[in-house]
Amino acid sequence: MSPRARPSRRPALLALLLALPSCGNVEDPPGRVLDRTPPGATLERPSKPEGTPAADKRAAEDTEPGHGAKIGSIAMRTWIYVAPDDRSTKLGYLRAGAVVDRAEASAGTRRCEGGWYRIVPRGYVCVGKGATLAIDHQVIQAALRGPDRAATLPYAYVMSRSPAPHLYFRLPTDKDQRRVEGPTVREHVRLAITPNVPLDTVPAFLGEGRDLPKPYGAVEPLRYTVHAGRAKEESAFGLVTAFEWTSRKFGLTTELDLIPLDRTKPAKISAHHGVVVDKPGLPGIVVSHGASKLVEGADGRMHEKGIAPWRSGWILTGNTKGGERGLWETTEGFWLPAETMLIGTPREDPVGHARAGKKWIDVSIKKQFLVAYEGTRPVFATLVSTGRGGMSDPEKTTATMRGVFYVHAKHVSGTMDGEEGSDSFDLRDVPYIQYFHEGYALHGAYWHDEFGKARSHGCVNLAPADAKWLFDWTDPVVPPEWHGAVNLEGGTLVWTHGG
Question: Where is the composition biased (Basic and acidic residues) (predicted)?
């Protein structure tokens, strides 16, 4: 998918979240898991009747979430609205399997037969095709658990081998596996190197022989006896759980497909991470191999004291020897040559966010360097991979769009195809996506470790640890049980340029 297949004008809200090309086609498969309300929006709260303290307490329990009542998502996207009305502003969405606190009483049934319910921390959800009050619903049972928002990556990730794995929709017997995958499947299992992922017990609903359900809004592929065909040859999957069945390990994907893990290999997750400036100083990233750590000896001369690893990050005190092109002192007490580093120094953005003390992000396409600022103070820096088209025309190549933009939509994860320049590539649950202009986004990449080199299809690729740090730092905030948030006006500024 070419990055040029973008709308020619600013898309409507629904298009932003459902149809953005995002360096390739984007979908948000089911799975589970704003501190700021969009400007001009007001949360509509049911009026509370006056009466005795007991009556007031009961009224609060009826209309405010957090008193034990729950609501669950059974759709690919369960939209959250600022008011109990589907024509009000959308704040974000839940993914299938998410269970959140709700008010006990409905806030009305306007264009929602099942009733609107206020949820934590804000907004309203309609009970119907997208959400249910029955927490034992089969979709919720199937989703098991959601993304781990505390971890570097929200899921465990595997990549397909060749031939790609079949997508089973129920636990296959030995006979099923031989019929589907061939008579030598057991020999293959015996010889294959299976990814080492944490194993759970077989989910009860699968052990009972039940079929995996598909959430409302999910594409229903053609089903055979026990499977729905093969995955694409070059696919990657996020797993919500894995377990052993018939002496074979299976993984359950976020799209609620079962895949034999011996037909996959582990994703090679980059260990690279940027530097958080959590003390007075400036960020520096070593971009040369063999950069010497230098210390000043009693003789007044500089002596080598080891090597600073390539792509390592350091906090610099701001003290220099020989000026900005000379040596820079680190908070660790040694010095590094300026020529071996990229340094995030105080600077300003083109529209005055820095002068106003706001958060903003600077992305240098030439340097493949990202610096996050609070005002003029750098607070984080890392290496990135922008579009392989470099400084060419983004409308004609895979270059990253240049300009001043704002983060307008965030997803804990989403599916991208064509990101590697191939229509056959199918990357599931790309982590920590932040759209800043039409289909262009900041996001984590678990399929390569070439940060510091232009190689994306137009988006700004980050190492997973860096993508998570930025996702947690930027606006709009995505509450813990939500899977996405929207703010068309007030998100964090992103400045992409050739400097």
Answer: 55-67
Cα–Cα distance for residue pair 117/121, rounded to 1 Å: 12
Q: Which residues pair with 252 in a beta bridge?
A: 241, 258
Q: Are 424 and 38 in contact (CB under 8 A)?
A: no
Structure tokens at 172: 């296959």
d(CA 147, CA 28): 13
Distance CA 213, CA 193 (A): 30
29: three-class secondary structure by DSSP: coil
Q: Which two tokens stand for residue 145?
A: 């658990």
Sequential DSSP letters for 211-268: PPP--BT-------SSEEEEPPSEEEEEEEEEEEETTEEEEEETTS-EEEGGGEEE--
Question: What pairing do the DSSP bridges indicate for beta strands 425-437 and 234-245?
Answer: parallel
3-state secondary structure of 497: strand
In the sheet with 291-296, reading across from the earlier edge strand, the strands are 302-308, 291-296, 335-337, 327-330, 313-321, 282-286, 341-343
Nearest Cα to 407, choosing from 381, 433, 376?
A: 433
| Residue 270 near residue 44 (C-beta atoms within 8 A) | no
Each domain of the chain, given as residue ranges in start order, spans 32-142, 156-266, 287-340, 346-497
Tally: H helices and E strands in the chain: 7, 33
Superfamily of domain 346-497: L,D-transpeptidase catalytic domain-like (2.40.440.10)
The Cα-based distances of 278 to 62, 289, 314, 315 in angstroms read 43, 26, 11, 9
For the stretch 39-71, pLDDT in tens is 333 344 445 455 666 665 666 668 899 999 999
Closest CA to 441 of 386, 487, 483: 386
CB burial class (10 A; 0-12, 13-18, 19+) of residue 266? Answer: middle
Strands 460-462 and 440-444: parallel
- The residues annotated with a catalytic role in the active site are 443, 459
Sign for the pseudo-dihedral over CA of 348, 351, 356, 362 = negative
CB 290 within 8 A of CB 307: yes
The conformation of residue 338, written as its DSSP 8-state character, comes to G
Q: In sequence order, which residues have a C-beta less than 8 Å from that of residue 89 and are 6 or more positions away?
A: 38, 41, 81, 82, 83
Q: How confident is the model over 79-106, as pLDDT tens digits?
A: 999 999 999 999 999 999 999 999 999 9
Query: How far is it, in rounded angstroms, from Cα 394 to Cα 65?
Result: 46
Average pLDDT, the chain: 88
Measured CA angle at 410 (ends 429, 431), to 5 deg:
25
